[in-house]
Amino acid sequence: MSIRYLTARAAQQIDEELMSSAGAFSLDQLMELAGLACAQTLAKVYGKEKYGRVLVCCGPGNQGGDGLVAARHLGMFGYQPTIYMPKPGSKDIYQRLQKQCDNMKISTIPSSASVDALREALSSSDVVLDAIFGFSFKGPVRAPFDSALPLISSSGLPIVSVDIPSGWDVEKGNAEGVGLNPDVLVSLTAPKEGVRSFTGKHFLGGRFVPKALEEKFELNLPDYPGFDQIVELPRADTSQKL
Description:
The protein is α/β, with parallel strands linked by helices. It is 34% helix and 14% strand. The two termini are 13 Å apart. This is YjeF N-terminal domain-like protein.
C-alpha cells in the first residue's frame, strides 16, 4: 500500500494525538527528532565540503523551532550554520532553543536587521534550510517574510524545505505562485497533500511515529534504513486523501 498524504485536518489531528496523554510526547521531543531529521537530510544531499555554509531561515512557529534544532545539529556535524529569524518565536521553548544555538557559537542575524542583511547572508551561504512556514500556514505572506521569500528564491542557492515549502498551502500547494521552490523536501510524520506535485528529492523524517498511531491513521509509512532518521520517497504518488 502507498504512503498516505495528509490533509491539514489529519496533520493537526496526528500532532494533537502525539502530544496527548495517549501519545505521551512533549513538544520538545518532537522538535528535537524533527530537527535532527532535517539536519540529516541536508547533510545527506549537500556535503559539508562543498556546502558547508548553511543559512537556516526560521519562522516564529513550530517550524522555526525545528529549524533551530536543525541548526544546532548541523553545527555538530561540522557545518557553519547562520540563523535568519526576523520574527523570533515568543514561547519559552524558542528562547531555550536559541540559547542552545548561542552556546554552539552559531551566529544569528538580529531581528532588527534590514532586508539587506538577508541579502548579504545569502551571498555568503552555500545552501538554505527553509523552516519559515509550516502546514498551518494560510496566505497571504506578510511582512517581514513577504520580502524575504523572493530574495531566497532569486538567490540561486539550493533550498531544503522543512515539511512543506514556505508559502505553499498544505493542500493546494504553490497555487498562488508565491512560495519557494526547493530542491529538497523533508516531510515530517507523513507527507502533506499540497506536495504531491513536488518534483525534487523528497525525504520523510518521521521515525518517531508510534506503531499504534501509524495503524490508527493508516499512514502506511515506509521502513527506515538502518539507524537513519530519514528515508527517501518516490518522486510521485497517487494514493488517496486521508
